[in-house]
Amino acid sequence: MDAGLITSMLFATVVAGTPLIIVALGLLVSEKAGVLNLGAEGMMAMGAVAAFAVTHHSGSAWLGVLAGMGAGMAMALIFGVLTLSLLANQVASGLALAIFGVGLAAFVGKPYEAVALQTVPPIRIPFIADLPIVGEALYNQQALVYFSWALFWGLLWFLYRSRAGLVLRAVGESPSSAHAIGYAVIRIRYLAVLFGGAMAGISGAFLSVFYTPMWAEGMVAGRGWIALALVVFATWRPLRVMMGAYLFGGVMITQLFIQGSGLQIDFPSQLLSSLPYWATIVVLVIISRNANTIRLNSPLSLGKPYRPDA
Amino acid sequence: MFELEARAEPSRLMSWLSPLLAVMLMLGGGVLVFWALGKDPVEGFRVFFLNPLKDFYSLSELLLKATPLMLCAIGLAIGFRANVWNIGAEGQFMLGAAAATGVALYFDGSDSSLLLPVMIVAGALGGAAWAAIPALLRTRFNANEILVSLMLVYVAQLFVSWLVFGPWKDPDGFNFPQTRMFGDAALMPALLEGTRLHYGFLLAIAVLIAGHAFMNRSFAGFRMRVAGAAPDAARYAGFSAARMIWVGLLLGGAAAGMAGMAEVAGPMGQLTDKVGSGYGFAAIIVAFVGRLNAFGIFLASLLMALLYIGGEQAQQYLNLPSSISMVFQGMLLFFLLGADVFINYRLRLRRRAPRSH
Lengths: 310, 357
Known about the structure:
The structure holds 2 protein chains of 2 kinds.
Chain A: H1 3-32, H2 40-58, H3 61-85, H4 90-109, E1 123-124, H5 134-139, E2 140-141, H6 143-161, H7 163-173, H8 175-180, H9 185-211, H10 223-233, H11 238-260, H12 269-273, H13 275-288, H14 291-297
Antiparallel strand pairs in A: 1-2
Helix pairs in contact in A: 1-6, 1-9, 1-10, 1-11, 2-3, 2-4, 2-9, 2-10, 3-4, 3-9, 6-7, 10-11, 10-13, 11-13
Chain B: E1 2-6, H1 12-36, H2 41-50, H3 56-81, H4 89-106, H5 115-141, H6 145-165, H7 200-217, H8 219-229, H9 231-236, H10 241-268, H11 279-289, H12 294-317, H13 324-339, H14 341-344, E2 345-349
Antiparallel strand pairs in B: 1-2
Helix pairs in contact in B: 1-2, 1-13, 2-12, 3-7, 3-8, 3-10, 3-11, 3-12, 4-5, 4-6, 4-10, 4-11, 5-6, 5-10, 7-8, 7-12, 11-12, 11-13, 12-13
């Protein structure tokens, strides 16, 4: 394997992992507050289509990202109203959001299916981008790749070093205690859910505006669900989310490189394409095998509705 | 301001009124959607909701569309009642379709009347086998069945696509991703002359009745209901949680697999890579709107079929993408989940607390 190939595989792995990092870190925050939103796939699809449409009409990729974020938040708001204000079942509401979001995105996106966007040039960080092998792969990337790293560091600080993060985690562990000492549990959960929606929207925007500058129905291709699995796999820790996302990015890219390499291997491309999904399953099995790991690490009130006694 | 007040016990009346309320809200929302899209709302309403009911043939198409939804939803409902969240019916549907196709292709040219029953069994086994993966991983390794069953939908789609692009591709099919057309003995006979409605509909009704009997008349069904409604009580009574996961997933997979069989042996007449048309996901909505109950599922599947056909009509007459169906289906489920709050709570006018100084 020559250095050029390593660089390009590393580059592609980082790009493939980025949307997973962004959406999974957003989900991590809402799960830390005790809210399980299974609708990530729908929020990403809406983010992707909104970002694509706005970028197409305005010519500005950044307005597009903003629109994607807004669309993701709007979807998350529906989920919030249902589960937090109307106390609906979180699993059912999340499934509804996933189905609705994917459907609405297909509907809204129909006129854009044959449209292509200009590719957005990467941002080159001076000096370190000249490093051998890794320089080109890591520091000549799209701005949202750098954003995903900033998001990671920001969340580490927020969750484990800031007072607000402590409150958020308290709400997820024991909403009734948090309520008893005077925190507005429902408002905090709303904020956490909206943050999750915003990140899912940005992640969708990354897919449709930067990664493959086009819109196609079903282009999110299960990444929202993979991200949900990633959060479990990471036992709700940001660093493991990041590592897991790159691992999956690596699996996706490896199968693409094998398909594109022209190596004469006698293996059908469709079955090769199913590798990332099998990998998700295998990883889930490995991490879930020990029930205690999951029980000890998952936020205690995850998925349970909470209503403060007035 | 209004506030929610917990009811002493869940309202049975509201649990039946809530789907009706959700349908009303969806119809109202639909009018708004047409208006927002710049279409005449009255015309939109007529095309979307009334056209699919206008004559005998349209009604037979409605029943045809409802068939796979009914089958998938009753299977899912059994699991949902025990909090077993199989959301991969779409994949189990495709595997059932593939297994039935395998039988049809292997016995191509046979005119045995046993062919169809064997295909039904193969479809059920195919679906159940696919659902056995999340069941095994959940019971042996504690892996979340929601995520595993969903991942397997994507795998199933790629697998079917491999079959029809590769080994099962029709040699005379101009390279289209599809198998040969099935022989007559492998096709569901028509139920009504001059329509596409076939015996699969009767199969669906039979499975609905069997599902009802299982849930309400058998001890296994009772255990599953207890496990869903009161998990602690079920544990205390010594009901095996693992067995419920297996039963919920296998029955759900078998029903979805039969639905897939009825689709390839019914209106499609062959396997193509478009076999999964979202019925498995729509069935999740059907199961909830039907209150996880056989009769409710029957009605809800007719309603969802109406939304599917309405979408096709809207594409034809209003020049809207047919994916508008999914928008309406999603809206319906949102309204239902929202309206369900009134089962356990009632609205009360909040009286201002007297001010204390």
